[in-house]
From TrEMBL:
The lineage of its organism: Bacteria, Bacillati, Cyanobacteriota, Cyanophyceae, Oscillatoriophycideae. Keywords: Phosphoprotein, Two-component regulatory system. The modification 4-aspartylphosphate is found at D52. InterPro entries: Bact_response_regulator, CheY-like_superfamily, Sig_transdc_resp-reg_receiver. CDD domains: REC_OmpR (cd17574). This is Response regulator. Residues 3-119 form the Response regulatory domain. Transmembrane segments: none annotated. Gene3D superfamilies: 3.40.50.2300. GO terms for biological process: phosphorelay signal transduction system.
Length: 122
């Protein structure tokens, strides 16, 4: 079963996204900050990470850059999900290593298709 690490500080968004992911048969581990994400990543590695951009403390952009520059996590696909959906934001996410960038509110079908494309074992 594919495991997704969801890094999202909004309880409402966490519930919505978790529902979408579980409906698709995915296992979800959710945290509310970059610091918590680092702790989870020290243990079991997820198959994919979904990151909000605006997080308490470390931003999703910073976390994405760290994940993609670390040899133990750089192969994990990263999907940025944010209300910051301008072309500049998408370009910035891409430059930092994000594999996909989805604007909020997230379209369930688009989210699942993106995950299927990024996880060849799905």
């Amino acid at each position: 079963m594919i495991t997704v690490l969801l890094v999202e500080d909004s309880l409402t968004e966490t519930e919505v996204l978790t529902g979408y992911l579980r409906q698709a048969g995915l296992r979800v581990v959710s945290v509310t900050s970059g610091e918590e994400a680092h702790l989870k990543l020290e243990g079991a590695k997820p198959d994919l990470v979904i990151l909000d951009v605006i997080l308490p403390g470390q931003s999703g952009f910073e976390l994405c850059r760290q994940l993609k520059s670390n040899s133990s996590t750089k192969a994990i696909p990263v999907v940025m999900c944010s209300t910051k959906g301008t072309e500049a934001d998408k370009l910035w996410g891409s430059m930092l290593g994000a594999d996909a960038y989805l604007p909020k509110p997230v379209n369930q079908q688009q989210l699942i298709q993106t995950i299927q494309q990024l996880t060849s074992v799905y």
